[in-house]
Amino acid sequence: MKLEACLILMLNAISSGMRRGPHHPHGQIPVDHKHHHYQPRGSESLTADSDLLHDTKHLEEDSQVLSEEMLSKMTPEEMEFHYFSVHDFDRNSMLDGLELLKAVYHTMEHEVLDADEDSSIEPIANSIEMYVSLVDRTLKSDDTNNDGYVSYAEYRAARARKDKRRAARQSAASANAPA
Predict the structure, then answer these.
(1) Quick check: pTM over 0.85?
(2) What angle do CA 150, 94, 26 make, to 5 degrees?
(3) Of 63, 60, 53, which Cα lies nearest the Cα of 86?
(4) Are residues 104 and 134 in the same domain?
């Protein structure tokens, strides 16, 4: 009986130590509660979604070195640089489709299915299709040299275009506003 108990405890310790993954490195035990991140809402591209690029909890988890305090002191441009760099897994200063997909897929990763809820995979499949479509739109609009990657220069240029469009919309709205 003692041998069985020791064996069970040992197997439990080994399995806990082996729980690894991109967001639970070094054997950390995964979070057992619902864990929410900002989720893209069908924007034209990833670079057009400022809320996604400024999701501090996402950056804090993915970077593994940036604290909440450090992130709170960053400019939007610094946060966007870190968002780009933490998802550049092969460190070639370019994001390919899989790296872009992983960046947005993270928003779904921590959702824990409730045992009382319907455990259908259909909503997850629909979300994945939406994210793949978002990545495709991002590559189409932001990969200006059509090499299959979004370089950091292309990323910054896409962000600048988005900022110019937003400023033009705000200017037009204020010009049309009643005096």
Answers:
(1) no
(2) 130
(3) 63
(4) yes
